[in-house]
Amino acid sequence: MLATQEDKTGVVKRLDLRFYVKQQPVMAALLAVFGVIFFLAVSGLSRAYHAQRAALGNRWFNRGVTDLQARSYDSAVTEFRSALLYSRDNYDYQLNLAEALIGLRQTNESYSYLVNLWEREPENGLVNLELARIAAQRGRTEQAQRYYHNAIYAVWPGDQEAKRRETRLELIEHLLSIEAKAQAQAELIALEENLSEDPSLQRRVGDLFLRAQDYEHALAAYRVSLKFDRHNAGALAGAGWAALQFGRYPLAERYLQAAVAENPADTQSAERLKTTQLVLRMDPFRRQISAAERARIAVDAFATAGRRLSSCATPKPSATPTASQPSLADEWAKMKPRVTEQELRRNPDSMEQAMDLVFEIERQTSATCGTPTGEDLALLLISKLHEGN
Fold first, then answer.
1. Domain at 195-282: CATH architecture
2. Which of 33, 91, 135, 211 has the maximal Cβ count within 10 Å?
């Protein structure tokens, strides 16, 4: 009887063991399912959390962009800082915050952000441009130029050529503002090589060449502009001034006449036209005039120089008198009896000597009494025209 009970107990144990063995895979599967469900739930919650943070960050960022565009820099700074609370390493958030700080003239903090951004993306065009502007404000010319050049050849979103062109133009403006005219000329020539024939752009480049005192290139740019916009008063005036400065007086006269015709209120071009016409009329060495006309012009020029010398006997207080000026008065008085139309027609060498003295008087009085006007300015320009002849 006892053995029978033991046998039954053993059978029960074996049955329990078999049942457990059969149930173990099911339990493992259930645990795995619960684990996956828990993981998915946690992942979903995490994604929702990060998505919510990203949405909040973008919301603050978009507000900041709107205020930055409206130049409400205080509000923009607050909004970009709020956006960074949700995404501390976001490149765009930091870059726009740096721009807003620049708007508030908080350049030190802006510079810290920009340097960090530059180390992450040294080819970013906007970062290099902002660093160039800060360096320029601080008077660090070489550093500014380096960052400007980085920006010119950097990666830009959208129209890269337009961004690079505007960056180089900004560099040129900076160079002109610090009187680095030779460097500005070099940048302008580099710009011109890839510049389209757009008349407004060509006119702008012509204006910059004028400021850089490169009159030959200025004239060329204006002529390209006028090829497509013949009646543009600004381009005509610029071309006239460039031609005048370049010593091409007949061409200057044509452009300045056209400029005044297009814009009668342009008094500056009208004055330059008068000067140009005086130069053309008062030059005794121009071709295709008679000996009598040449002599008459030289006599008038000699008288004009004498009046200038007399009025410049007492230089401006800011001017430094020269030791040669009294001797010029003596030379003029000594030569005066021989400067007649008959004598100058008969003796061309006398005319040469008379005009040499006229030119010397105009140069000397210009140095001591300031830039002349009217006929004296015309004679000074004529002297430059014939220097070395």
1. Alpha Horseshoe (1.25)
2. 135
